[in-house]
Amino acid sequence: MCNVQDTVKKQSRLLPLKAFNFLIYGTMVIFTSFFQLYLQDAGMNKQEIGSLIALGPLVSLIANPFWRFWSDRLHNARRILLFMMTGTLLLIQIIFHVSTYNMMYLAMILFFFFQSPLFAQSNTLILGYIADTPQKFGTFRNWGSIGWAIVAVTAGLLIDRIGISHLSFLVTGILLLAIGTILMLPPLRAASETPPIRLRGFGKFAINRYFVAFILLGILVSVPNAMNNTFLSLYITELGGSKTMVGFAVFLSSILEVAVLVLFHRYLKRSLSTLIGCLAVVSVLFCIRWLLMADATQPLQVAFIQIMHCITFGGYFYVGTQVVSLLVPPVHRASAHSLFTLTWGGLSTMVGSLAGGWLFQNFGGQAMYNTAFLLAMFGAIGFGLMWYWLRIQGHHPKPDSPEDDELDDQLEEYH
């Protein structure tokens, strides 16, 4: 009986952690989905907006290792996260009150320095609190996905009522609530162990022809996805959609993502040729998605097309992570996964925001999505050829590069 009571008490102490994930993801979805509309309302054109958003992944190259270093040195992820959130909160007040473009760019650089590593540090915080407990990471992470979907659709309704000029009040309010949930958590003086990134031997897999092809083809597929992420809200409003419709589109794009991950984990065969074939199919689905977006004439059509995001983005990232695990020896897997994430979420976001802004500004949204279709098509053809080659030649990893089940263990958390 005492053990049951102790377990219930420990779980109740971590309820603020679930609330934190809900709120921090909710804060970020407001920023990523509606901030572009605020910038447009403030007088910036699409090319300027794209260049501003492209600063994020560039700054994160410095910000992520900087905050990770201090988190590991102080062994206090909670304190570091509070410091980052406080900096983000203060800079939000500056961003929404600057009057010149130069000041906006400077403020955004500082903002991204505090904001861009928030998700990584929040994951570290979760792992630190659930260490040596039966709690599962996925239980807490799923609250982030729920917050992303629910806050997006709720924020759209509110912004239509209060106006986009009052966006700062909404972001500030939710971020303050998120800071409050962190303060409610018990002290934590432990940092979860993260595998070191080993540079020695990096070249052995960096010149692996399958790995290099996978990374390059992935960039072709992910750049169009970055274009869509950056300019979706502007495209919807250009078609006559409201802020509510923007929130509804984001809601539809994320609500089924966890279910898709679970289905892939349960039913997808873990062989390299099967996984590459799956990436070819997902790339074809991306092509269809971008063609539909280019042909859309109503904002509601765009919203329902976003349902495909759950399959295309969720499927590609899941399968891509497994491909890395099969192509790279365990000792270098942390480095390989970092490179995969860097190219998919970092380099592609920079290129997609800059190129997408130029295309959207000069030729319109339809031209931007037609270009996205062409890039995804080249990626699909490349993955199709890679699948065919693997079916003919096979894949024969070296004996000292065994395929382990570490990703299965991580994704088992979602069950």
From TrEMBL:
Major facilitator superfamily associated domain mapped to chain residues: 15-370
Molecular function in Gene Ontology: lactose binding; lactose:proton symporter activity
InterPro entries: MFS_assoc_dom, MFS_trans_sf
Keyword Acyltransferase: no
Chain ranges passing through the membrane: 19-37, 49-67, 79-98, 104-130, 142-159, 165-185, 206-224, 244-264, 271-292, 304-327, 339-360, 372-390
Swiss-Prot/TrEMBL keywords: Cell inner membrane, Cell membrane, Membrane, Transmembrane, Transmembrane helix, Transport
Transcription regulation recorded as keyword: no
Gene Ontology, cellular component aspect: plasma membrane
Pfam families given in the database record: MFS_1_like
Residues in the signal sequence: none
Stated name of the protein: MFS transporter
Species this protein is from: Paenibacillus mangrovi
